[in-house]
Write a structure and sequence with these properties.
single chain; about 230 residues; alpha+beta; six-stranded antiparallel β-sheet; five-stranded mixed β-sheet; 3 helices; about 25% strand; globular
Amino acid sequence: MKNILIALMVFTIMGFSGMADAKLTRIGTVTIGANYLGAGGRGGGMPGVQSGAPTSSEYSLIYEDDQGLVWVDYTSGSKEWPDLVSWAKALNEEGALTYKFNDGVSVAWDGDWRLPNTVDRARKNGYDGSTTAGFNITSSEMGHLFYVSLGNVGYYNKKGEVEPSFAGLKNKGPFQNLKESIYFSGTVYSIYPNHPWHFNFYYGGQDFTSFTNSYAYPGLAVRKAKVEIK
């Protein structure tokens, strides 16, 4: 009986470990045409923000299975929100992207390339993850990526206390170009339509800001998909 219990414990641990590893999978690469790189612009005021021309145009495609999303491992140059929305939309044009999937990978796209979505409700700040602004929020696509799939911790824990283990964007998983920066969401705050939501990949905070005051942040491109890996 003791041996059976030990075997079950090992199997359970391995099972959970496999599940964690499977959350983010590199499924291939994409080459972004030179006219669609979206480089340049002002820095976002955070460490590591890409502001110059990229040195490469081929980037990893990363599948996040529990959200059913494919992310391009590329951080655009910092731009104002309307320009970033246009940049992400342009990736759907013919010739913008050239795909190279790994052997055994099949992808059925569900929708277009875009900036990540955020659940839009009245702004309420908090720490336990149930609010629209604040910390530990996993209802947005970027928040889920930061906290759940990558396993990072925010500056504040769910009690509103400074988290002792906070280390910024410590875990990047298969991403190489994800920055400790504020990234724009593609969702605007419906109460103030010229205020898009954003997520801070350093502190782990979520809020909104006005794009009429020339705020410039970088963007991520993401797309819904059903991915099978043989």
